[in-house]
Write a structure and sequence with these properties.
mainly beta; OB fold (Dihydrolipoamide Acetyltransferase, E2P); five-stranded mixed beta barrel; two-stranded antiparallel sheet; 10 strands; about 10% helix; globular
Length: about 150
């Protein structure tokens, strides 16, 4: 398992579908922007697209509650299990990479349209039933008579 955290903008509204076995899944297209500095001292913005999947059987009652917040333009932070990258040939030629993860935790900032409607939360936290929100874990180690926390 590779736990990954990404931060980016939704490129489209969330799409909800049901599998043949009756499990609901929401797919999110997330644009993560990075800036590269080529040889000419000018920064170039590069967009890396991720597909984030949110499975209803992992999220319980939180699943339907988050749909209203997953709109195009919303800023999100997704933490989850990264899937194996795949390559594909796009229409414009060359080779691109497909990156995806199954979300265990989401933080969503309402889109500008939602903020205009009065949603004032800075971030809304959602986490799956399998992974409750992260908490600080303290443990004591004893080495040669010394204790640390």
């Amino acid at each position: 398992m590779q736990l990954v955290q990404i931060a980016g903008c939704l490129g489209a509204d969330a799409k909800k579908r049901t599998t043949k076995l009756g499990t609901c899944v929401v797919n999110l297209k997330v644009a993560v922007h990075i800036f590269k500095k080529p040889k000419l001292n000018k920064y170039k913005k590069v967009t890396i697209w991720w597909e984030v999947s949110v499975w209803s059987d992992r999220w319980g009652d939180r699943f339907d509650k988050m749909m209203d917040y997953l709109k195009k333009g919303s800023l999100i932070i997704a933490i989850g299990d990264m899937r194996e990258p795949e390559t594909y040939k796009p229409k414009h030629g060359g080779v691109d990479i497909f990156l995806s993860l199954a979300a265990n935790e989401l933080r969503v900032s309402p889109s500008k349209a939602m903020q205009a409607e009065g949603v004032k939360d800075e971030y809304i936290d959602f986490s799956s039933t399998l992974n409750p929100p992260f908490k600080k874990i303290e443990r004591k180690l004893t080495l040669a008579g010394a204790t640390s926390a």
